[in-house]
Write a structure and sequence with these properties.
By secondary structure, this protein is of the alpha/beta class. 40% of the residues lie in helices and 18% in strands. A hairpin with a 4-residue loop joins strand 8 and strand 9.
Length: 296
């Protein structure tokens, strides 16, 4: 475990996330992220972009790729939820009972439990000069967001009430927030919304981009399965359904297992079973509504 001292308080850092993530297509979005993070003078500060799109559109993949492959920084992902507390975002105290148990085993009076302070992935990125991805940030409450207000403006610090310290961000620190465009999220307070700029919208990919994404993730897939999957996804976008590339990858992967596992010897049947299993009746409705159209 890597540890640092801040104002004489020892902090245990989190590990960066090392993922095998690739990105294809929509390079203009990459350029927008890199521009937001760019520093143009000594008096300048990086912006805090937020990526908005439907669940499964690739927001986290896009953010990770920009940070890891292009910016060449360590990446720390924090998964936001409705239960995320302010201290979860900064520093969490952990009580160790090792001292107490060892004293009791030796026949001595037990010692007081020791408290260690563990930095979140966000704070670890701040200290190390990495990139923090706050994933699905609009699932957090306003109270939790309030703890990050000074980090997201030119002050660039957070305060830990639990550890009693102020933590300043390394000059190389960058942050990006992904947000789902759906009904299961909170509205951001205006003072946070104004700090999370620019807003970069991630639309569903076009035909070629969607095919390339599926091919990249499933290089072993039969061509016919890929084409059927892309055709269905494109039709679902036209019909305003929320099915994503992630859904397509799951469908195609399951269809291949059904086909190669000899559950069925027909690719169309394998895809139909996979479609119903992954997307349910809503997927069948989309397929039925477009059953007279050509495949991809």
């Amino acid at each position: 475990m890597e540890k640092v001292k801040i104002e004489n308080v020892e902090i245990v850092l989190s590990h960066p996330d090392d993922l095998n993530i690739k990105w294809t297509g929509q390079n203009d979005l990459i350029r927008q992220i890199m521009a937001a993070w760019h520093i143009i003078s000594e008096d300048d500060i990086p912006l805090n972009p937020r990526i908005v799109g439907k669940p499964g559109a690739g927001k986290t993949t896009l953010s990770y790729y920009a940070a890891k492959e292009l910016l060449k920084r360590e990446v720390y992902i924090f998964q936001c939820t409705v239960d995320t507390r302010p201290e979860d975002l900064i520093i969490v105290p952990v009580i160790s009972e090792n001292n107490a148990s060892s004293g009791a085993n030796a026949g001595m009076s037990p010692q007081s439990p020791k408290i260690s302070y563990h930095a979140s992935s966000l704070v670890s990125a701040m200290i190390k000069g990495g990139v923090a991805i706050l994933d699905e940030g609009n699932r957090m409450s306003e109270k939790t967001w309030a703890s990050l207000a000074p980090l997201l403006d030119d002050r660039r610090y957070v305060e830990s009430v639990i550890a009693g310290i102020k933590i300043k961000a390394h000059p190389d620190f960058r942050i990006i927030v992904t947000m789902n465009d759906d009904a299961s999220t909170f509205e951001l307070p205006e003072y946070i919304h104004s700090r999370l700029q620019p807003t970069i919208e991630l639309p569903f990919p076009d035909v070629k981009e969607e095919y390339d994404i599926l091919k990249m993730n499933l290089p072993f897939a039969e061509e016919e399965i890929l084409k059927i999957t892309v055709g269905f996804l494109q039709k679902s976008h036209i019909n305003k359904a929320s099915f994503s590339v992630r859904d397509g990858i799951n469908m195609a992967r399951y269809a291949m297992k059904l086909y190669r596992g000899n559950i069925t010897k027909d690719i169309d049947t394998a895809f139909l079973i996979a479609l119903k299993s992954v997307l349910g009746e809503e997927g069948i409705k989309i397929l039925s509504a477009n059953n007279n159209e050509e495949k991809y």
